[in-house]
Write a structure and sequence with these properties.
This protein has seven helices and no strands. It is mainly α and 191 residues long. The termini are far apart. The N terminus is likely disordered.
Length: 191
C-alpha cells in the first residue's frame, strides 16, 4: 500500500510539469506566428517565443494552469516589444555611425564603425562619427552611460539592465530615455 501511495505522490508532482509541457506544445505554433508577424523575422520570433516559454517555466510553473495563458501572452508581448524597441534604438545608433555591415555582409556591432570602405572620405567620416559618438556617451552622466551601454550596446533587456545597475526597471527606462535625448541633441549633425 505504501508503494501505491508513493506512486500517486510521484504522479502528483509530475502532473503539473507534464501539463505545462502540453500547454507549451499547444501554444508554441500560434505564439511563433504572432511573434513572426510582429517582428517580421523568423529567427527573432523563435527567440522571442523560446524566451517567453523559459520565463513562464522559470517564474510561473507553480501557478494554477488557468493562469498560464494570460501570463504567457503577457510575457511574449513584452518580449516582442523589447525586441522592437531594441531594433529601433539600434537602427538610430547605426544611422549615426554610418553603416552596419562590412564588405563580407557580416553585421558589425553597433559601436564598431565601418572601416573598410574603399573611399577615404567615407572612412574619415566613419571615424569622425564614431569619435563624436564616443565623446557624447562619455559626457553623459554615469547612470545614463550605464543604461545606454547595457541596453543599446550590450543588448540587455530592461530587467537585466536594472539588475546590473542595481535599480528599478523604471529607473533604467528613465536613464535610457534621457541618454537617448541627450545623444540625439549632441549628434544631430551626424544624422
Amino acid at each position: 500500500m505504501s508503494s501505491v501511495s508513493l506512486t500517486m505522490d510521484q504522479a502528483d508532482t509530475r502532473a503539473p510539469a507534464q501539463t505545462l509541457d502540453a500547454f507549451l506544445a499547444g501554444i508554441e505554433r500560434r505564439a511563433w506566428r504572432m511573434a513572426q508577424m510582429a517582428l517580421g523575422d523568423r529567427e527573432e520570433a523563435l527567440d522571442a517565443v523560446q524566451d517567453a516559454m523559459l520565463r513562464l517555466v522559470r517564474s510561473y510553473r507553480h501557478k494554477p494552469a488557468e493562469e498560464w495563458t494570460p501570463l504567457f501572452w503577457g510575457i511574449l508581448r513584452r518580449r516582442i516589444t523589447d525586441l522592437q524597441r531594441r531594433r529601433k534604438v539600434r537602427s538610430v545608433v547605426v544611422g549615426w555611425l554610418g553603416g552596419g555591415t562590412d564588405n563580407n555582409g557580416d553585421t558589425l556591432p553597433v559601436w564598431e564603425p565601418k572601416g573598410d570602405e574603399p573611399d577615404p572620405l567615407h572612412r574619415l567620416q566613419d571615424a569622425q562619427s564614431y569619435a563624436a559618438m564616443s565623446e557624447a556617451v562619455r559626457e553623459l552622466p554615469r547612470r545614463q552611460q550605464e543604461a545606454f551601454m547595457l541596453r543599446v550596446l550590450e543588448g540587455l533587456d530592461v530587467a537585466e539592465t536594472a539588475s546590473a545597475m542595481g535599480c528599478s526597471d523604471g529607473s533604467v527606462k528613465t536613464h535610457l530615455s534621457r541618454a537617448m535625448h541627450a545623444l540625439r541633441d549632441k549628434l544631430e549633425e551626424w544624422r
